[in-house]
Fold this protein.
Amino acid sequence: LYECRWINALRARRLGGAAPRRGGRAQRSAPVGGDFPLLHYTLRQKNPIMIRMSAISPRLPFIHAFLLVFLFLSVVNALFSQTRNQTQRGRMPTFEAETPYWYTMEEGKKFFREGDYGQALRYFEDARNERRRIWTRWETTFISLLSIHDVRRFGDSLDFVETYINDRNQFDAAAALAELVYHLGRGALQNSAQTTLTLFTLMKEYPEAEYWIGEVYRLEGERDIALDQYRKALAPHPEERSPDWKNDILYKIAELGATGQRYNEMERALLEVLKDDTLWQESENFVRNAMAQTLNNEGINQFLTMFRHDNGKTEKAHRLLGHYYYISGRYNLAEAQLMFAALNTNTVVIAEAIRKRFDFTFTTLDDLMREIERRPDIQKYMAGADYFKTLYYLAASLYANGKAAPARDLWTFVSKQRGGEWTLRSQNQLRSPFIEAPVAMP
């Protein structure tokens, strides 16, 4: 309404007429330029509100449009400038906590070593939960990226997805991929978006935390919970672990299985360890049969002269399975396992004797014992490996399978050593051989 009145006033001024006076007064200011003087109109009403309005030029709509466009471009330029600065400074979004989960894990190990198992358990669980939270965020970010319509058209090609990420400045997705490549390497992604998404899901798990939580429960006497934790620690995971890590957990599962009378689970764990014994896996037919025939026909001394095998990671599994199979009445399986256990142990002992005296040559077990009788380190190793117990049960397995001659040779050797219980039992077997009654096991 005020614009209309001032347009009328402006026209009246130009035509030489008087400006209308409706509830106020109009005064002419100094000319500003052109034919359009700057007019000020003051409204005085009951409330002392002063409103100053400028005369409207016919070109004013174009000026308004120009100002709006200029303002819009300025805002857009400011936003893009901020984005470029963020990129140049390398500031990528991150979901790391103030205390990294790996540091929390190390703190828990410190409490574990000090015997504070309650505090250690809390730290281990916090580390597991924190890692799961972080990798869930990365996974959600990548899923959100793959849900974009333009990205879905790329199919399973990760190269195209990464090109889109770089072109569209998808910083969250770029950070998620960079974290995954840092932990697993680019080759693990296989240029597949689906494989990458699967890896994000697997990386949420923390096998090390599961293992240490199991250790706490094992020491606290909670065998069932500890077994569940060990199984979680052995679940498939993209991060590589050393064979020792896997075997240590399997041996703990076997130990808990034996303690809790879960012998089937113990057997499965020990057989899993034997997958790392290449000679055992590859010699199922020819080589193993040749070894057994040499032991049966020519005795233990010729057997140890012809064959050597040193695999410290699997010797314990062979030994425990051999004892278990003999006690449960499976003598053929016991003989094969104990033969490998004895071969592993004697290979180590012979190697130590050669290292002490370079010209030493193995001939008989009696000579070997005389060679190492002053070596307490080897004596300690033999005690830890149940050396005489293994030889005793190897002889008992041979005897149970109808091979009395090699069994008698082994019992004779053990009966002359300082093997404690196994020396006495060997002497009894030499006087009156017998097969021990099998023990029923669940």
